[in-house]
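Sat 14:20. Reprocessing the chain from the morning session after the first attempt stalled halfway. Input below, unchanged.
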Amino acid sequence: MKRNVFVSAAASVALLVAGPVATAAAVSADMAGTAPVAAARADVTAEQALTAALKDYPGVVESLDRDGNVWHVDVITKDGKGHAELEVDTATGKVTRENVDTDENPGEHKGLLAAKITAAQAAKAAVAAHPGTAWTVEWDSDDNGKAPYWHVEVKGSDGTTWDASVDPTTGKVTAQTDSDSDSDSDSDSDQNS
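Finished this time. Tokens:
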């Protein structure tokens, strides 16, 4: 009770001194201690979706992909035997388990589990190299002799998509060539001169 009186008194002083800007801050401060967390947040980012998914199903993220109002997140348990397909709502951050498998072959995930760079770190590195929003992060371990890497799609503020490869050991970012035809992005945005 005393806390509410002090907060209300502080809010009143702030209103008199600072006007409308302080009003919002004072109301937020007062409500933070007494009101439940509201769903009136901005869109859930890739990083927030990864955090929510790992909280619900601990392990290592294998892939993350945004599809409309949902983040699809695949998580492998740290022993490599479990796999979950999760959906994270972009408005609320609520996690839904779509499919859980507990008899995975740990050998299939050996490279992913040994990677020093996580999906979240790969997304951050790609966005640092090309400003925008991480839209897709996928572990790619082709068996064609290529070393495994993180494939990250970054959407720029102008709507264009930039594909990056992130080294799972060093975090070094390189742009992918257009010759990689197994990308999920539309080829309509490719412009060849």
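The CA atoms of residues 117 and 168 lie 5 Å apart.
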